[in-house]
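for the writeup, i need someone to sanity check this before i put it in the appendix. the sequnce is what the collaborator sent (i think, or maybe the updated version? ugh). structure was predicted straight from it, no edits. if anything looks off just tell me and ill rerun, i have time this weekend
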Amino acid sequence: MGAIVVEVCDGNAITSLDIEGIIESEFPEVAVLMNECLAFCGLCRVRPYALVNNRRVHGSTPEECLDKIREAIKEELAVYQ
């Protein structure tokens, strides 16, 4: 199985969810990294987002973003199956 990394800025609105606990429990092959800053200045203030293997994923709400993160993870996992 390939390594999938989800990176989250700790100032981002998505941190209102336990993103690390949720993703790592659903997808044991995924590592969630909490960073002080991902250098997308301003984006974290505008909408929840994360990087899934360096690909930006965002949503209007933390819940929508989480759903899109799940979809991106599934797409990445499909490559390895």
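Residues 4-80 form one domain. The first helix runs from residue 19 to 26.
thx in advance!!
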